[in-house]
């Protein structure tokens, strides 16, 4: 019965959405608060965000991609690809063939981005649609010769209010209409690095500010009449963990730094040997019990971090909370970039709008699953990707989904009904076959017939 109701409803909703889609193309705003660790939601108060979730959905943990850094993870969200496939494999990169360098301050060369096609480009290839970006890594770069129709050059000094004003103006006034938009904010990442996530007092203050910004966002969307028809996803790229001056791995104690070039430092160091690779590897391998040292060909498959020229011949992965340094003191009290199986590295995802259920909580999805879900909402054909649309079906009103406890309940329920029915049939049959008076006598008469003949 429950199954029937769900099927009927999902059919009705699909029908309704199908009819209305001619007049109103679906719109989606993707928001990232950088470095918003998933369990901040349990450990701090977020009245505005909790209201948003109450009327929408929450995914408590998003398993992001390795390495858990900002540029790579933001690009995975908008492409559905692991880092080895989209090519943004770190915030600092070096390409041995072209000898080009990439850093978060020098990221405008499309060469680095062109190994993938982000959703804002695909969206604009559709007739009568445009994209807009109030910042998001890559949105101010002409990827495949295309920027969003409306975008801002990255600058951390632009206020949230200005970014929000721009994005709402573009969502309302543009022609062709903006159907996909991004909004990016640097906090709580910046404060997480500065104070460390265990600094409750400072993090309380910063996270309260973030919640107020979410309140502003929702208020503005309501005032402008965008709230009911706009799908809004609020998520992040990674979490944050506490570092300490007592947890340093000093490479200079193990190896002469003239024997290699360091492309990226911590917590995942990318090492390009200048001498024999095995020699460098052997020295680094025994450097610290608190980091794993991998030759590129031995990087564990679960990281999906191997098949790209920009991944260096040796990588060092520090244990959670450990910092790789070159004869220096601790650079920051909080960091990310570590193993993506650590829950401290995971962000969350919340969403609200006509595409999403209301008041639904879900345990986990992968960050690469967000891309096929966004394509579905916008009616775009997704490009080949590493995500699974099925993982996000339970979040969407036009999809039928069933989770494991429900499935087990339905199977047990069906078995109980079948067993009861079978039992009833057997009892009825037994009652019908109870011998009636004289029936045996009649049978005997029949039996006698052939003998008489
Ligand atoms: Zn980040």
Automatic annotation (TrEMBL):
Family stated for the protein in its record: Belongs to the nucleotide pyrophosphatase/phosphodiesterase family.
Naturally occurring in which organism (per UniProt): Acinonyx jubatus
A single BP term in Gene Ontology: blood coagulation
UniProt KW Metal-binding keyword: yes
Keyword Transmembrane helix carried by entry: yes
Lineage: Eukaryota, Metazoa, Chordata, Craniata, Vertebrata
Cofactor: Zn(2+)
Segment forming the signal sequence: 1-18
Bilayer topology: Single-pass type I membrane protein
Catalyzed chemical reaction(s): P(1),P(3)-bis(5'-adenosyl) triphosphate + H2O = AMP + ADP + 2 H(+)
Subcellular location: Cell membrane
InterPro entries: Alkaline_phosphatase_core_sf (IPR017850), Phosphodiest/P_Trfase (IPR002591)
Primary enzyme class: hydrolase
Domain of life: Eukaryota
Keywords from the UniProt entry: Blood coagulation, Cell membrane, Disulfide bond, Glycoprotein, Hemostasis, Hydrolase, Membrane, Metal-binding, Signal, Transmembrane, Transmembrane helix, Zinc
TM ranges: 407-427
Name of the protein in its database record: bis(5'-adenosyl)-triphosphatase
EC number(s) reported in the record: 3.6.1.29
Protein purpose: Hydrolyzes extracellular Ap3A into AMP and ADP, and Ap4A into AMP and ATP. Ap3A and Ap4A are diadenosine polyphosphates thought to induce proliferation of vascular smooth muscle cells. Acts as a procoagulant, mediating platelet aggregation at the site of nascent thrombus via release of ADP from Ap3A and activation of ADP receptors.
GO cellular-component term (any): plasma membrane
Gene: ENPP4
Record-level Gene Ontology MF annotations: bis(5'-adenosyl)-triphosphatase activity; metal ion binding
